[in-house]
Amino acid sequence: MVGMNPLFETKASESAKVDAFMAKVDHPLKDVLIELRKVILAVDPEIGEEIKWNHPTFFFAGPMAPSNPKEYRRYIVVSNLFRKEFVRLVFPSGAKINDTSGLLEGDFPDGRKTVVFTSVADVEAKSGALRAAIRTWLSLVER
């Protein structure tokens, strides 16, 4: 049975906590975050969500080889609502994704990549590349 092997760990999704966060969030682009959440969760049934770093965060919930929690190897993408004019997604280990679409931006020393969304239409326009980036990330998970 998956998850029973002591060499692998799974992580439970906390969708109810994300729902509660979303009910209270006060951001002019809340609708953008709602659409992003739908797109991200629809990519794969093993994507979970929680509130981490004070924002909705998406992670690989399936069985995964144990690792140092400070490496954040399970985390796919973190939303960021600090700016009012866009919603930023941060891929903590985005540098490992071979993104030829130009979606992922930044050359950060810690390996993260980012992408910004300014409207629901922007989400729709970039959703194919976003799904592809997430699928690539998932293909690299050490299971």
Could you please describe the fold and organization of this structure?
Strand 3 (75-80) and strand 4 (87-91) form a beta hairpin. The relative contact order is 0.19. The chain has helices spanning 15-24, 30-43, 120-139, and strands at residues 47-52, 55-60, 75-80, 87-91, 113-117. It contains 3 helices and 5 strands; from the N terminus they run ααβββββα. The two termini are 14 Å apart. It is globular and about 40 Å long. A 5-stranded antiparallel beta sheet has the order 1-2-3-4-5, covered by helices on one side. Helix content is 31%, strand content 20%. With 143 residues, the chain is α+β, with helices and mostly antiparallel strands.
